[in-house]
Amino acid sequence: MPAETLTYAALGARLTISPKAARSLAKRLRLPRLLSDDGKALVSVDLAEIRHTPRPPGRREAGNVALAAKIVALQAEIARLEATAAGHRVDFERERERADRMMVELRQATAETMAAKEAAARLEGFLRTDGRTGGSIDRHGLAARRPAQLAADLVAADRKAFR
């Protein structure tokens, strides 16, 4: 039988396969190809030499069913993972808000500590000068001793708490 020049669609129709399968077969058999004027590929083929038997349709569909089942299982897994990720996102947001609140509290505590240290330093300076601020002192120096004793107690308590 002489060689015929057919398009992939025509070759597929003759062999009762799809045009895509016909193209694949032509590539696999390394059949000579040309390009027609309208841009379609033409294949030179001797149909008597080709020994092609298409696969039974049931076998292909069984593979497609298994593939479809895998796809469904993977889609279910994706949905489950998305739900888990959403739960983790909620936990993350809650922990971030908690960390922000704790950061504000830490800054406030730091400011209070710095203010207490400054007050302690002022009181220590007051103690070193023996309370000589130029104010009035009673006859026994009690007015100067009372704030000094209070300051010393405050500094000692602060140092104890800081250790």
Helix and strand topology:
Layout: E1 4-7, H1 8-15, H2 19-28, E2 33-35, E3 41-45, H3 57-128, H4 142-162
Antiparallel strand pairs: 1-3, 2-3
Helix pairs in contact: 1-2, 3-4
Overview of this protein structure:
With 163 residues, the chain is mostly helical. The protein has helices spanning 8-15, 19-28, 57-128, 142-162; strands at residues 4-7, 33-35, 41-45. Among the domains are: 4-45; 126-162, no CATH class. It has a three-stranded antiparallel β-sheet with strand order 1-3-2. β2 (33-35) and β3 (41-45) form a beta hairpin. α1 (8-15) packs across α2 (19-28) and α3 (57-128) packs antiparallel against α4.
Rough shape? rod-shaped
Q: Round the mean pLDDT to the nearest integer and report it.
A: 82
Question: What distance lies between the first and last C-alpha atoms, to the nearest angstrom?
Answer: 105 Å
Q: Count the DSSP helices.
A: 4
- Which regions have little confidence, pLDDT < 50, spanning 5+ residues? none
What integer value in Å does the Rg equal? 46 Å
